[in-house]
Amino acid sequence: MVGADGNTSLNYSLIFRPKIKKSALSSLPELYFRGGQGVRVAIIDSGVNNIVTVSDHVDYTGFGTSDGIPTLHGTIVAAIIKHFAKNAHLINIKVTQTPTEISWNNIFSGLKYARDQGAHIVNLSIGHFDKKQCQGKCNKCREVQAFAKETGMIIVAAAGNLGPTEGTINCPAVAPDVIAVGMVDKTGKSVDPNSSRSVPGVLKPNLLAVFRFIVGILQLTNGCSILDVRTFIRRGMSWISRI
Question: Model pTM?
Answer without folding.
Answer: 0.77
